[in-house]
Amino acid sequence: MSSYCVATYRSFDAKADFDKKALGIAVGLTVGSWTDLPAARQAEMEKHLGRVLSVSVHEPEAGAAAGSLAAERYADIEIAYPDVNFSRDIPALLVTVFGKLSMDGKIKLLDLKFSEPFLSAFPGPKFGLPGVRKLLGVPERPLLMSIFKSVIGHDLPALAEQFYQQALGGVDLIKDDEILFENPLTPLEKRVEACMAAARRAEAETGQKLLYAVNLTGPTSRLHEQARKAVAAGANALLFNVLAYGFDVLHELSKDPEITVPIAAHPAMAGAYYQSAHYGIAAPVLLGKLMRLAGADLVLFPSPYGSVVMPKEENLAVKQVLLTENLAADYIYSGSGQGNIQLAPSVPVPSAGIHPGLVPVLLRDFGQEVVVNAGGGIHGHPMGTAAGGRAFKQAIAASLAGVPLTEAAANQPELKAAIDAWGVKA
Ligand code: 1AE
């Protein structure tokens, strides 16, 4: 029995015959030509042929605002690709479904559904949400992450002091800045040792465990070795710039049995792929399905509210895919089973420009299965970095209790200072 992975595209064209276009994609990206083949060859090639599952044409709506989607002529096209055509890895799948096609006119990859045989090659996140919660000993509440800021050019004592201040604020996770690479002042192993020592000092005061996601950088051929060194030096999490290296590199790292810590995926460069309505790969695929498939335990992405924003609908779709969607659920075009493979959920980390005044809307939209993540919103606090962490914790506690932040701030000076500085979003 054949199995298929299914891609959905949005193709924009003022005049095209979209049925013909869909057939051209299904045939062109699989067997290459079809009608010209002799019957015997057609029978042989049948199992390699892509199938058009649906073509849904949208005609421009009268009176629609110029530049809006409603004013455009486009079609959503669903095509099934036989698994037999590609090896069970993300590069092979992406090159098949959106290799040359990504450069062929106005077309965006909207969705990907994976067959169960394809999915079976992916163990998914090693820890995921339940594993991260277990490591931290925090079964329910939203988690809080702090981001190192302005650490380029700083030495180990300065870095350790910044770490200590963040940890004192009571955060659950601290991540390196994604632009901190291997460097002589704060090399990876020394950085891990200095920061984990600061973590222990802070824990003695706060009683709180935390994960430090150290940035894994350098040439691809050395990443496994670097990651193992980091773990041996005491790192209890890694940060990884997935899109700069490729999903397959994340997949290889996450399934390495010697890398025994959660991996946080940073979205650097993602905007080049998902932001256009007409081109690229939709955010729920790029930052949702592919990240989870490749094994990201936590996934950072812009929120709908901060300094770098993603439209809310898209944002919540990313969250949905990371947390709840069974990636194999409705893969079938012609197959043998339905969605038995479950990957652990990845933790959503909506980020960029987050401050305590955004916590109520963030928790309203994301619920409790989320990491509240901030850099400037912690270090920029008027009373300092540790107070910045405390202000977030106070905002989270108040939001969970249904208490308005302005009311909660009356007897919590850290929260009050944060609100005075940045306000509260209704
Ligand atoms: C979407 C990624 C956010 C990130 O990595 C980062 O450093 C955010 O910093 P702040 O919170 O905007 O200062």
Provide a count of the helices.
18
Strand percentage, roughly? Answer: 15-25%
How confident is the prediction overall: mean pLDDT? 94
Q: Which word captures the global form? A: globular
Question: What ligand species are in this complex?
Answer: (1Z)-2-hydroxy-3-oxohex-1-EN-1-yl dihydrogen phosphate
Number of strands: 13
CA gyration radius, whole angstroms: 24 Å
Q: What is the CATH homology-level superfamily of the largest domain?
A: Ribulose bisphosphate carboxylase, large subunit, C-terminal domain
Name the strands of the widest sheet in spatial order.
12-11-9-8-7-6-5-13
CATH class of the largest domain: Alpha Beta
Tell me what the CATH architecture of the largest domain is.
Alpha-Beta Barrel
Distance between the termini: 54 Å
Class inferred from helices and paired strands: alpha/beta
Number of domains: 2
Largest sheet: 8 strands, parallel
**Which spans of ≥5 residues are poorly predicted at pLDDT below 50?**
333-337
Tell me the quaternary state. Answer: single chain
CATH topology of the largest domain: TIM Barrel
Q: What level of helicity do the residues show? A: 25-40%
